[in-house]
Write a structure and sequence with these properties.
This protein has 186 residues and is α+β, with helices and mostly antiparallel strands. The chain has one domain (17-185). The protein contains five helices and four strands, in the order ααβαββααβ. Strands 1-4-3-2 form a four-stranded antiparallel sheet. Helix 2 crosses helix 5 (154-163). The protein binds heme C.
């Protein structure tokens, strides 16, 4: 009897971590995509304004100061936590946690196998619903994330290194996996 109860407890704990219905999954994926796109648009349009105004010299300090406050405004608007993370980081504050690192590696493995990257939604041990979606590098990103001394000029690199001495986030080509959005529904 005790053993049966114990097994029941284990089964219910396991099912608890994965008890989203297909309909719920679809809803959270739609919502997650909407939030990721809106945040990307907000960061991107502000960044491009700065690029037009003063190139990387103006846009990098802007990113450094404003990426967090802009993201926080979106978190309040949607009542979620929003994080941008990657394996090759610029700002160490954006380091992935264990679950995010796993997702990033899964996406890399999929790329290797020629598979399509799709958003992921799952309930995790914290009992919260987590949404992940890839961030692909675009042409407009290469001035700050492209190949050193090619798209990233030495002047840009010195500005980057002054703010991020351990910058690992260069060397990317358009369409490379730059990182992921990690959104947690509260
Ligand atoms: C003007 C230079 C610049 C451009 C252009 C730029 N970035 Fe960044 N990027 C930065 C800086 C600076 C940071 C660090 C921000 C911070 O301190 O949080 C950063 C951080 C990131 C991060 C967070 C992970 C990390 O490494 O810290 C991602 C993801 C990212 N950029 C993707 C992109 C994508 C995708 C584009 C194009 C749509 C892009 N960036 C364009 C300068 C730039």
């Amino acid at each position: 009897m005790k053993k049966a109860l114990f097994l029941l407890a284990i089964v219910s704990i396991l099912s608890c971590t994965n008890d989203l219905t297909e309909t719920q999954k679809k809803e959270y994926i739609a919502k997650g995509k909407e939030i990721a796109q809106a945040t990307m648009k907000n960061l991107g349009s502000n960044l491009m304004k700065q690029m037009k105004a003063g190139g990387t010299l103006t846009a990098i300090p802007f990113c450094n100061k404003s990426a967090y406050p802009l993201t926080e405004a979106m978190e309040k608007q949607y009542n979620v936590s929003i994080k941008r993370t990657a394996l090759k980081l610029r700002n160490p504050k954006n380091s992935p946690n264990e679950a995010e690192e796993k997702i990033l590696n899964e996406y890399l493995a999929k790329i290797k196998n020629g598979e399509k990257l799709t958003p992921i939604v799952q309930k995790e041990q914290d009992n919260k619903i987590h949404f992940y979606t890839p961030i692909k590098l675009q042409k407009k990103c290469v001035a700050c994330h492209g190949v050193l001394n090619k798209q990233v000029t030495s002047k840009t690199d010195s500005i980057l290194k002054s703010l991020y001495p351990n910058d690992k986030a260069t060397g990317f080509k358009p369409n490379d996996l730059r990182g992921i959005w990690s959104i947690t529904f509260e």
